[in-house]
Amino acid sequence: MIKAFRHIPVMKAAFFSSCFFVLGCENDFNEVRDLGKKKNAQEEANNIESYISENAIVKAKLISPYMLRTEGDTNLVEFPRTLHVDFYNDSAKVESKLFARYGRYYENKGKVLLRDSVIVFNIQGDTLKCDELWWDQNKQIFYTDKQVHIRKPDEKIDGTGLVADQNFKSWTITNAKGPINVPDSTLPAN
Predict the structure, then answer these.
(1) I need a surface site. Which of 30, 133, 147, 157 has the fewest CB within 10 A?
(2) What is the distance between the alpha carbons of residues 15 and 9, in angstroms, rounded to a whole number?
(3) What CA–CA distance (Å, rounded) separates 26 from 41?
């Protein structure tokens, strides 16, 4: 009997300490669920100057004050604070320039979404203004199904929808509005 009384304080201490640990452990269901979620890696950079080349020939130069790159199922590069791109010909001369307040590059698809005050102009003096424009890097074309405004030195053309080559030398407006100058050589002879 004497031995039984000696073990009671030890057993009490073990019981109370195990209760303390059991009651002290609490898991939030949302925190536990979030542990199993895949987290995307993010990179930030300031004062970006990037060159796009093809077969060792510089095709474009991009300048932006801020870039955010997210890796995941679809790798995204965002330019939320404006961007400027100069497009070069094979002789390394600027053929066209692009400005936008926002850009998103889908790396896996080779496509760029440009939004908010998009302006593109070429060395001939043609200017395109729109709110949204896609650039397909693989096909080297611009396109949109939104409203566009083209200003040439002698013409003003508005419309909805556009497809243009990367250099903005050749373009087609889907639903054009406004007077369009047609050279006399294209008219049928009487």
Answers:
(1) 30
(2) 10
(3) 29
Residue 90 has φ and ψ, to the nearest 5°, of -65, -15
Tens-digit pLDDT profile for residues 10-52:
666 665 555 555 555 566 677 766 666 666 788 999 999 999 8
Q: In whole angstroms, what is the distance from residue 115 CA to residue 106 CA?
A: 14
pLDDT along the chain (190 residues), means of 10: 56 59 60 67 91 86 95 89 91 91 93 94 88 91 93 88 82 80 62
Domain count, the chain: 1
Q: Of all helices (H) and strands (E), which one includes residue 43?
A: strand 41-54
CB atoms within 10 A of CB 108: 9
Which helix (H) or strand (E) element contains residue 9? helix 2-24
Cα–Cα distance for residue pair 142/149, rounded to 1 Å? 14
Domain span at 48: 41-181
Residue 14 amino acid letter: A
Residue 81 placed within a domain: yes
Rounded to two decimals, what is the model's pTM? 0.69
User: Is 28 part of a structural domain of the chain?
Assistant: no
As a 3-state breakdown, the chain gives helix, strand, coil percent values, each rounded to 5, of 15, 55, 30
Look at residue 68 and give its three-state secondary structure: strand
